[in-house]
Amino acid sequence: MKKLTPTQVRFLRAQAHHLKPLVLVGDAGLSDAVLKEIAATIKAHELIKIKVNNDERSERDAMLNAICETVQAAPIQHIGKTLLVYKPAPTPKLALPRN
Predict the structure, then answer these.
(1) What is the third-level CATH fold of 6-86?
(2) Taking the model in full, what pTM does it have?
(3) Is 99 a residue whose pLDDT tops 80?
(4) Which of 57, 53, 56, 5 is nearest to 31 (CA)?
(5) Burial of 60 by CB count in 10 Å (0-12 exposed, 13-18 middle, 19+ buried)?
(6) How many helices (H) and strands (E) does the chain have?
(7) Domain ranges of the chain
């Protein structure tokens, strides 16, 4: 995944404002099944919110990095227990700003 510009990140955050979390990471953490679900969901939607049931910010950061590395996605935002992740589809649905 290429690096996104600050303008593109702001655009994606605005696009995600109305989205509901599509994947929930429970107390068991990132299992193979959860990662498969994230991969399938991001393939279908490009931009997804993930809700994490964990109180430790550092652990949520580690989960965000692991998710992005596993599914080759870009981390967009981490606010509270909600993670925002983007991966363009082969034929993108979202047209990102150029700069």
Answers:
(1) Translation Initiation Factor IF3 (3.30.110)
(2) 0.90
(3) no
(4) 53
(5) buried
(6) 3, 4
(7) 6-86
